[in-house]
């Protein structure tokens, strides 16, 4: 077979920078910035450079070792200078990358294509990576811009699937959610709005609550209520007034604890209550009457499981639908409030890259406590 | 149209005795024994005499006014002598009755047939009743004997549906349940045994625990563990040993509280956790990880809802299947440990019938705290 490498044989793989860890623990303790060389390209692999990668809550749980989707520990990055082990994992699970070289047996992918990760655990907090075509998914991400492409596959897709897979939502139906200002929550608001589905949005109270309400309204939120208001005895009447007596079909919970328990009361007969996160780190309580008499189903959703159990075609279809919805909502401020962090500059030391990263980590989280932090790679 | 009443026109409806209430409250306060006359038979109605009716936990909740399946309050029984209202409801939801007269337009039912109730809320703690054919279901109940027929439609059917409708159980699969010595729990054990499905049975500890274990084993229980043992740190290993690493597919909960929370830990990946009761009157706690990562589904089951949403044909099919399972298990001591209470003797006063009933109520409940009490009617 003739060699058809689509680049000069003088192609020299770049030096990569990455946020890595060699053992589980508090991210502040175990994360290091690291420099390593990409392995030579082979006929079946590709090289890519990351453009942007967000910091998501699950990334942190993964480093802590409490997340079931494990990172990939590999010897290929070389050990840390002060390391105990030879194997390292790169943090981050989401991001958009541009292909910079492809082996001659690689089909359907070419230099310049933008790709996102096809599975959790690849490691996206880095400037460059070697991969196989199976690791990535190519789609028309350039249409929606860098930041949205970088944050498309986890949060908007989670919102989309949860709105689509558990109940059939029709125009005028009602969905209730807590943690409504999380990135997922904001996507829920926007997708529901695009479908004319009403959202009742629970957020934590804060001094500038009116600003947050205005912002969420601008995304398309129908009603907003704080966790404190939710506890009030008048809430039942209020929500009845909002819904005009229609049942709330779907509840989405990423918080847990008291607010999650409280929220379940507002689901209607045979409603579905989907838990996808536990930001408060508290479990919630289920009264038997919800289950037995109201027939409420308490289910969970995990995007990683969906990705594992669905085909590339289904993933591409989902991405394209979500992109269409995003374009539809172009007038809104975008899928999430975020902050860009320029990262990876070759002239910066590993110490400085690490400090920059930990700074971003501190500020991460939508809404009150921060903004989604997105590493924008520099070369 | 010619009159074809299948009885002498001299037929005089019997005087009926019933346990009634005119308002919700503590059963001890609101229940009265009452004497009333059946209304005359019409071409479309039937008269029946009850043979046996159990006291079930839900009957009590219904009288307390905390059960969503409401009793039928009607003026047809006449008011109580000391009553405030004209409308009365008869307690009890389950029982077997013999038809003693049918109107001439009634098809498929004849004098001498045994019937059970087609829906909740009919009122079965009485000697006689007038009904329409729609109120009752006729099946070959004589085959299985009086007590089993009287207690067939609620507990064994609940056990059967829960084992059948949520997961597909194959030979060798595992089910875990708490309140395993409840009547439903005993039916679960027996039906599972008939299907070669293994049961892990949680019961409350008690001084004579070995007797209970022996009894449940005789029904077909695979493993038995007390609530106290369940809390021990070794339980995980023990259950792993029992299951040989197979996942537990189904959990059945009628208790709630701590034991229900604890039990959820032993369900395997994508298991289904069905709640059908809350004997401890405590809610239980759900950790998000069970929902998100283990994909455990927390659902509820309510026989009354199933009955409402399924056809007479489906009900008859279920009853016949359950009867077959019961016959299959004839060598076992029967579907539940019970105690017969002779009730309704025409020569006894209403005061005496009431005292007798309240006595039985005190003793009701399977296992440690009592035995299922079954009114056996006297004439
Ligand atoms: N199951 C899945 O497949 C899946 C997919 C995507 C995300 N998730 C999960 O969904 C959750 C949100 O993710 P995200 O990326 O959207 O998050 P994000 O944008 O970083 O937002 C975090 C949200 O959590 C809230 N929050 C933080 N600490 C809290 C606490 N102690 N009590 C109550 N609320 C608290 C914040 O509200 P304030 O403004 O009040 O701080 C904010 O709404 C995370 O748990 C994440 O792991 C799950
Ligand atoms: N959803 C439905 O369609 C449906 C259908 C049938 C029954 N049920 C429900 O299922 C439950 C059992 O009914 P049943 O007729 O089988 O009951 P039963 O025969 O009267 O037995 C009662 C059971 O509850 C246990 N129990 C009582 N108090 C308890 C407490 N405080 N904590 C823990 N366990 C306690 C008893 O265990 P001990 O021996 O330790 O006292 C016994 O195992 C009830 O809640 C009933 O309403 C529901």
Automatic annotation (TrEMBL), chains A, B:
Its EC number is 1.3.1.104. One of its GO terms (biological process) is fatty acid biosynthetic process. It is found in: Mitochondrion. GO terms for molecular function: enoyl-[acyl-carrier-protein] reductase (NADPH) activity. Gene3D superfamilies: Medium-chain alcohol dehydrogenases, catalytic domain, NAD(P)-binding Rossmann-like Domain. One of its GO terms (cellular component) is mitochondrion. InterPro entries: ADH-like_C, ADH-like_N, ER, GroES-like_sf, Mito_Enoyl-ACP_Reductase, NAD(P)-bd_dom_sf. This is enoyl-[acyl-carrier-protein] reductase.
């Amino acid at each position: 077979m003739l060699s058809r490498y689509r680049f000069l044989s003088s192609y020299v793989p770049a030096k990569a920078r990455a946020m890595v860890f060699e053992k589980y623990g508090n991210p502040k303790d175990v994360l290091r910035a690291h420099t390593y060389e990409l392995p030579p390209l082979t006929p079946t692999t590709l090289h890519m450079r990351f453009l942007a990668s967000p910091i998501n809550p699950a990334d942190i749980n993964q480093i802590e070792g409490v997340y079931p989707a494990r990172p990939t520990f590999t010897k290929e990055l070389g050990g840390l200078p002060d390391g105990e082990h030879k194997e390292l994992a790169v943090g981050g699970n989401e991001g958009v990358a541009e292909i910079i070289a492809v082996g001659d047996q690689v089909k359907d992918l070419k230099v310049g294509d933008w790709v996102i990760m096809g599975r959790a655990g690849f490691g996206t907090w880095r400037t460059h990576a070697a991969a196989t075509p199976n690791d990535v998914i190519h789609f028309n991400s350039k249409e929606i811009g860098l930041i949205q492409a970088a944050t498309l596959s986890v949060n908007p897709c989670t919102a989309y699937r949860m709105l689509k897979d558990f109940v059939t939502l029709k125009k005028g139906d009602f969905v209730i959610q807590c943690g409504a200002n999380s990135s997922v929550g904001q996507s829920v608001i926007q997708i529901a709005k695009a479908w004319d589905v009403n959202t009742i949005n629970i957020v934590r109270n804060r001094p500038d609550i009116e600003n947050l309400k205005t912002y969420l309204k601008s995304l398309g939120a129908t009603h907003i209520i704080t966790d404190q208001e939710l506890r009030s005895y008048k809430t039942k009447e209020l929500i009845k007034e909002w819904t005009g007596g229609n049942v709330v079909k779907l509840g989405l919970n990423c918080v847990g604890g008291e607010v999650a328990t409280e929220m379940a009361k507002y689901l209607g007969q045979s409603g579905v209550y989907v838990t996808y996160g536990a930001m408060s780190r508290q479990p919630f309580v289920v009264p038997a009457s919800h289950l037995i008499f109201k027939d409420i189903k308490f289910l969970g959703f995990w995007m990683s499981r969906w990705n594992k159990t669905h085909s590339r075609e289904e993933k591409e279809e989902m991405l394209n639908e979500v992109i269409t919805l995003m374009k539809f909502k172009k007038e809104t401020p975008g899928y999430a409030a975020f902050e860009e962090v320029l990262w990876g500059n070759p002239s910066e030391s590993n110490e400085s890259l690490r400090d920059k990263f930990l700074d971003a980590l501190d500020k991460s989280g939508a809404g009150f406590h921060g903004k989604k932090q997105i590493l924008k790679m520099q070369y």
